[in-house]
């Protein structure tokens, strides 16, 4: 078996975490791009969503994660019982999520589904792979919002598509690898083909934003609809 060696060092993130909602049981935040969800083993990767939150809420624990480059809505629990209740909602897939993304090229169909199993492969770390044999089921729905051209400084027109993703499952890197699979990687993705050819202006970040998170409050039983407008 291959040994996983993580050499990634996160650059400093100077953006603040935005608190969207909080009560005695949970906190909903807007995570900035370029911030780890959890601190890494390397002491240089101490800064993270969790690290920042526990400075204010010592008992706080994360219920789910977003990739380093992904921004948007996350929910954190303020005690173990709430964490367990929210984790159960995620595992039972009663939590619904929506993302906005900019994809390279013009997507042909206005909507569709990408259904392809995803597997870990230590030899490819940190990338995931599509694997029909050993992969876990993964399904992503997409809806095209607009197709447009982004004018570059040299006058070239870069074709892009703005889409809304609704993942049915929550596999690691799911939207990033599914976008690559159907030929339209997410702009700014350094792992799955979203970096553009030399001469084209690089994207300032991974153009993926968690825009909606819907779940049931474990104590009140009321539906929670958390939203964060896409910054791109």
Describe this entry's structure for a reader.
With 232 residues, this protein is mainly beta. It has a single domain, classed as 2-Layer Sandwich (Pseudouridine synthase), CATH 3.30.2350.10. The protein is 12% helix and 34% strand. It has three helices and twelve strands. It has helices at 49-56, 80-91, 174-181; strands spanning 18-22, 26-31, 61-62, 71-77, 96-104, 111-115, 118-120, 128-130, 139-151, 157-167, 208-216, 223-227. Strands 1, 2, 3, 4, 5, 6, 9, 10, 11 and 12 form a ten-stranded mixed beta sheet that branches. A hairpin with an 8-residue loop joins strand 3 (61-62) and strand 4. The longest helix has 12 residues, at 80-91. The radius of gyration is 18 Å and the shape is globular. The N and C termini lie far apart (41 Å). The mean pLDDT is 94. Keywords: Isomerase. Residues 25-180 form the Pseudouridine synthase RsuA/RluA-like domain.
